[in-house]
Amino acid sequence: MAKLGKRTRAAREAVAGKENLSIEEAVALVKSNATSKFDETIEIAMNLGVDTRHADQMVRGVVGLPNGTGKAMRVAVFARGPKADEAKEAGADIVGAEDLMETIQGGTIEFDRCIATPDMMPIVGRLGKVLGPRNLMPNPKVGTVTMDVKTAVEAAKGGEVQFKAEKGGVVHAGVGKASFDEAKLVENVRAFVSAVAKAKPSGAKGTYMKKIALSSTMGPGVTLDVAAAAGE
After folding, report:
1. Would you tell me the crossing angle of helices 182-198 and 23-33 to the nearest 10 degrees?
2. How far apart are alpha carbons 26 and 228 in whole angstroms?
3. Which of 41, 109, 144, 154 is the most buried (most CB within 10 A)?
């Protein structure tokens, strides 16, 4: 068994026996254990009582975190003509059509969010096997297939977070940085949990939110009191 470093051992000892915490307690504990030399991301993971193999149990959505993510979001936009110009003016990092499709097919994906105008979807559709598994496929349900390119780009740049239940019913996302004030992290966590709660699918049966955990990039996770976090 690998020997744990002093920092890792201390972090694990700090959270030992601490479970079902309030959001405030969890944020304070995770933040205090984020002692790496870089600004760690504060991450949330939610285990949901859904079976994503069934369409009526899929959980996906988007939430604008009140205090942003602290991450510089790289945005790619599929558009032509005036809409391409609109995307560039709004701050998109990459704008294109067939040329962008060929770049992605070649294995180069240098963006965190992909937006497309509806007329571009026949082109974007060819990239489903590449973008889909990375949760980058434009989708009208989360506002990334739209004619309002300006708003979509600005939302992505402003701290909007997409979420989607993966195999096993787990949803995870970054909700800020360790350098954020505790109060701002708490606000972001509450906003994310609320958005996932509102995205409860019609086919979900039994307990919807089973477990919620908070951690930093390099730190151990702590569990939250699900009922309190969900405002029940």
Report:
1. 130
2. 12
3. 144
